[in-house]
Design a protein that fits this description.
Elements: H1 5-16, E1 23-27, H2 43-56, E2 60-64, H3 66-83, H4 89-104, H5 106-109, E3 114-115, E4 120-123, E5 126-129, H6 146-149, E6 152-153, H7 161-170, H8 191-198, E7 204-208, E8 213-217, E9 240-245, E10 250-254, E11 261-272, E12 280-285, E13 293-298, E14 301-309, E15 316-321, E16 324-331
Parallel strand pairs: 1-2, 3-6, 7-10
Antiparallel strand pairs: 4-5, 7-8, 9-10, 11-14, 11-16, 12-13, 12-15, 13-14, 15-16
């Protein structure tokens, strides 16, 4: 329980349906000398989660996940940016913290299931898109295995966000008006300021795809494929990032979005929810806010029906068939 509306309503629904519920609040790593706590495990968040637990009459536990979080989420993010990739820390947090580290606590807590406030559904070993498509979070859950799905409950998967807020008010939960948090929880300022502390990198030239120098970049690690804002080329744009040349420390840009289009991509570390590899036609999401698009899977090669814009190494590619999540992988 994070102290947010979704996990609070999840606990309330479980309690209402006769489950013996335990509230677990996890403490994550925060930067040394940082004044503020992480948003998802701050003193305020803990207080809110505790107030909900008291309201529902359920036990409240705090688990220290700082060491695991630093290793699996923070160090991963830094390592990926060093490589020039654009990582997705929320995927790794779900993979290693909420559905691995927390699973290891099941026996200690004498629990049978883990329930979370994710907008997703599980049915007969299948991971399905949530009823509220706009809030659906299956994109971040593609790493789940069958053994985990058999012990996971997503209580709000069949509700819309509006209905969840309505239930929070109906249950008289003290967090019913609390706003959602969408930023990276362990970064207090901006990602650029955070990365400067952990990665040594130098400024360099910005050149066009035709080889013309048009400016200077601050550090290559700050840019991602498809980016337009923040390139700082005075008045002659717009320009889009099409490539990062780490060997020569050069940022390559183009003023044509056609240079961002690709028909195919390669993925690695693929996980299939069913445990069996899939080949054939499906739908693919190449970033969390992207639309699903038609494609054909041939092993770890994805061929799109239509060229896609700004395919970004390090991001997750997630595969769907109807409302079922097939699996996913990391874009190479």
């Amino acid at each position: 329980m994070s102290g947010g509306v979704d996990s609070s309503v999840s606990a309330a629904l479980l309690k209402k349906n006769g489950y013996d519920v335990i509230a677990v609040f996890m403490k994550f790593w925060k930067e040394p000398n940082r004044k503020n706590e992480n948003r998802c495990c701050s003193i305020e968040a803990k207080r809110d989660a505790q107030r909900v637990a008291i309201k529902l009459g359920i036990p409240f536990y705090v688990i220290d996940a700082k060491k695991e979080f630093k290793k699996r989420v923070v160090d991963y993010l830094i390592k990926e940016y060093k490589k020039g990739n654009t990582p997705n820390p929320c995927v790794e947090c779900n993979r290693w913290i909420k559905f691995n580290f927390l699973f290891e606590q099941l026996n200690k807590l004498k629990a049978d299931f883990i329930a979370t406030g994710h907008y997703a559904r599980v049915k007969n070993g299948k991971l399905l898109i949530a009823k509220d498509i706009k809030k659906d979070q299956t994109y971040f859950l593609w790493t789940l295995k069958q053994r985990q799905l058999s012990k996971i409950i997503f209580p709000i998967g069949d509700y819309t966000k509006g209905q969840v807020r309505g239930l929070a008010k109906k249950f008289r939960l003290p967090v019913f008006e609390k706003k959602d948090s969408q930023e990276i929880c362990f970064i207090d300022t901006c990602i650029e300021d955070f990365l400067k502390k952990y990665i040594k990198a130098k400024p360099g030239h910005i050149i066009t795809t035709e080889g013309k120098k048009v400016g200077e970049h601050e550090r290559l690690i700050f840019y991602t494929i498809g980016q337009r804002k923040g390139i700082k080329i005075g008045g002659i744009g717009p320009f889009y990032v099409v490539k990062k040349d780490f060997k020569n420390n050069v940022l390559i840009v183009s003023n044509s979005q056609k240079d961002l289009l690709q028909k195919e991509m390669i993925v690695k570390n693929v996980n299939w929810i069913s445990g069996k590899p899939f080949s054939g036609k499906c739908k693919v999401k190449i970033r969390s806010m992207a639309k699903m698009v038609g494609a054909t899977i041939k092993r770890n090669r994805i061929i799109f029906n239509k060229p896609q814009r700004a395919i970004t190494p390090g991001q997750s590619a997630v595969f769907y068939k109807g409302n079922k999540l097939l699996g996913g992988g990391i874009i190479v």
